[in-house]
């Protein structure tokens, strides 16, 4: 694989404790924290602790334990936030912006969990 991870990205700095964050959950394989510029009443980012750039990089290169641990953390965060549609919550949207077309700003794999209001159409109509 030719992915080149830049350890100076802001989420790597958060993982190293060099920049503060508003933590929702930390596990062996994941850290979840509130987005600094929320786009919805609920806007939490979940990142794996390993050096993965984007979703496909993580999905292809992470260990089974990392992938399972990360996904369990996403479930736990939804539980903590009270947004599970099957448990009385109103649901949420997951977004994983990847690369230039995905308009990814921070090159450390992350999932956005957005909720607290109806999120509208999934994407703008394509050109
Ligand atoms: P993306 O465009 O998917 O790469 O989104 C990156 C997200 O990271 C944006 O929603 C930013 O608001 C968020 N962000 C950037 N810096 C921080 C930070 N220090 N703490 C929390 N969220 C951040």
Summary, kept brief:
By secondary structure, the chain is an alpha+beta fold. The chain has three helices and five strands, in the order αβββααββ. It has helices at 10-15, 55-61, 64-81, and strands spanning 23-26, 30-34, 42-48, 92-95, 111-115.
Give the helix/strand layout:
Layout: H1 10-15, E1 23-26, E2 30-34, E3 42-48, H2 55-61, H3 64-81, E4 92-95, E5 111-115
Antiparallel strand pairs: 1-2, 2-3, 3-5, 4-5
Bound molecules: adenosine monophosphate.
Provide structural commentary.
- The protein is α+β, with helices and mostly antiparallel strands.
- The chain is built from three helices and five strands, in the order H-E-E-E-H-H-E-E.
- A five-stranded antiparallel β-sheet has the order 1-2-3-5-4, with helices on one face.
- The radius of gyration is 15 Å and the shape is globular.
- The mean pLDDT is 96.
What distinguishing features does this structure have?
single chain; 127 residues; alpha+beta; HIT family, subunit A; five-stranded antiparallel beta sheet; 3 helices; 24% helix; 20% strand; binds adenosine monophosphate
- DSSP strand count: 5
Shape, principal axes of CA atoms: globular
Q: Helical content, roughly?
A: 10-25%
CATH superfamily: HIT-like
Q: CATH architecture, please?
A: 2-Layer Sandwich
Low confidence ranges: none
| Rg, alpha carbons | 15 Å
The tally of helices reads 3
User: Might you state the CATH topology name?
Assistant: HIT family, subunit A
Domain unit count: 1
Top-tier CATH class: Alpha Beta
Q: How widely separated are the two ends? A: 32 Å
The helix-and-strand class reads: alpha+beta
**What composes the largest sheet?**
5 strands, antiparallel
Q: Approximately how much beta-strand content do the residues carry?
A: 15-25%
Order of helices and strands: HEEEHHEE
Q: List all distinct small molecules, including ions and cofactors, that are bound in this structure.
A: adenosine monophosphate
Q: What is the strand arrangement across the widest sheet?
A: 1-2-3-5-4
Overall pLDDT score = 96
């Amino acid at each position: 694989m030719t992915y080149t991870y830049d350890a100076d990205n802001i989420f790597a700095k958060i993982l190293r404790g060099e920049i503060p964050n508003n933590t929702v959950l930390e596990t062996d394989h994941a850290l979840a924290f509130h987005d600094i510029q929320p786009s919805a009443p609920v806007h939490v980012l979940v990142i794996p602790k390993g050096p993965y750039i984007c979703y496909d990089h993580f999905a292809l290169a992470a260990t089974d334990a990392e992938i399972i641990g990360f996904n369990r953390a996403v479930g736990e965060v939804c539980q903590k936030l009270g947004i599970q549609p099957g448990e009385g919550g109103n649901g949420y949207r997951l977004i994983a912006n990847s690369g230039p077309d995905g308009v990814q700003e921070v090159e450390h794999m992350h999932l956005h969990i957005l909720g607290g209001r109806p999120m509208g159409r999934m994407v703008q109509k394509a050109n």
